Amino acid sequence: MLESQESQASPSPYDDAIRLLARREYSRAELEARLAAKGHDGEDVAACLERLAEQGLQSDTRFAEHFIRSRVGRGQGPLKILAELGNRGIASEFARSALAEYEASETVDWYELACDTLGRRFSSPGDTPSERARRERFLAGRGFDFDQVRHALSHAWDA
């Protein structure tokens, strides 16, 4: 009797996808991987993803917008954001386009964000070369480019 209950309770890929999307946005590639990991058939997953896209319940565009906004709020730079979008299955060209749209609509200043991020983490630029290098590595690890790192090291503690 327990086996029959389990087979009846086996959710469809669509049901599992809805549960996942109720919690947060997912890219198409992330959803596909999650549904496959739950043991759903590849064809069923593909059909489910098409249905979700047609219904507007899953959108890589919306996912990218939300993801970028979230990461900027965390103080991450453009290089890391692009890399993480790629890791989540968003094509490089599409990710760059989404980031450019975000930059245009939100007027994000990466130099200012680098300064704010560095100023929150460290109280000074550092007295020794090793301390300055530590701050550089911190910003580089956050996804800021060389010019943004240099600018932040010079201006993060300006009053």
Automatic annotation (TrEMBL):
Residues 14-52 form the RecX first three-helical domain. It is found in: Cytoplasm. Keywords: Cytoplasm. Residues 59-99 form the RecX second three-helical domain. It comes from the Bacteria. The keyword Cytoplasm applies. Residues 109-153 form the RecX third three-helical domain. PANTHER family: REGULATORY PROTEIN RECX FAMILY PROTEIN. Modulates RecA activity. HAMAP family: RecX. Belongs to the RecX family. This is Regulatory protein RecX. The lineage of its organism: Bacteria, Pseudomonadati, Pseudomonadota, Gammaproteobacteria, Oceanospirillales. The gene is recX.
